[in-house]
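Feature request, filed as a ticket because there's no other form

It would be nice if the structure record came with a short human-readable summary line next to the tokens. Right now we just get the raw output. Example of a typical job, pasted below so the devs can see what we mean:
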Amino acid sequence: MVALALVVPLGMVALGGAKASAAFNPAAFDFWVDSPTMGPIKTRVLRAADGNTNRVVYALDGMRAGEGLNGWEIETNVAETLASWNINVVMPVGGQSSFYTDWNAPSEFFGIPAGTGSANTGSGATDALSGGPGKSYRYTWETFLTQDLRSALRDRLGFNPTRNGVFGLSMGGSAALALAAYHPDQFSFAGSYSGYLNISAPGMREAIRLAMIDAGGYNVDSMAPPWGPQWLRMDPFVFAPRLVANNTRVYVAAASGRPTANDGPNMGTVNGMALEALALANTRAFQVRMATLGAGNVTYSFPEYGIHAWNNWQDEAYRMIPDLSASIG
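Raw output as currently delivered:
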């Protein structure tokens, strides 16, 4: 596991799936909400087929979250399927490498402020080394999702602010569990696909460090100091007792890393296989942790085939929907 953690993120698919190609659902609409620290943030909203405002789910993106559309809209038809189940879908846009948490500081390296370098392309180690990494502001995604966006959805669209669901892939998977653990009044259901659910395990912080450099040139030390309370607060293995105490309905999935017939013979598949193996190791550790706590509120899915890729996550979402539907609103 340590070897995987240190080597895998050097690939192009580091901790978040391959970079998506743009798509657009005309039935969804842009919903802009101001964040005091991050400025205007776009969210894509797809209304439930029956028009209800009581059943709401948030769909979180992966490490390479773009600024135009959420990956779930770009790569899958999961949002449309959820809407057909009479669930309102909330898809935040942006948050590359953020883990959807509140950061300690704006991302920078060696004291050089973010966004000031000569490259400043928003992707890769080149930007980090040229002094142009990350964002010039401090990420406050947890506050945005649980206060700013939550209130705006209630006040402007009439959405129910309690007993919502949240799910995500990879980075978004561990974030979904964290949001439910610390905000049980808002989230009664959380789903994680291929999540990194034991981030304090040996090698994991350095794996995340390399992945964040590759995905936008972000500095993990700006997110949370090493091994301190802020870092441990993000670790599902550590906060697992909260999920049990809250009786949150949890869906956790990780595949074997063995490619399906739809995964082509290329480097993306090779990277996806290794990344999923790492996610599986993390997820199995989380499963043992929950078992020691006597948890009876978790459904696990460990398919025999599947890599760190959107076709795997779409399939998991379909398997999760009945549990989600029964646990929100």
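Something like this underneath would help us a lot:
The mean pLDDT is 89.
The chain has twelve helices and eight strands.
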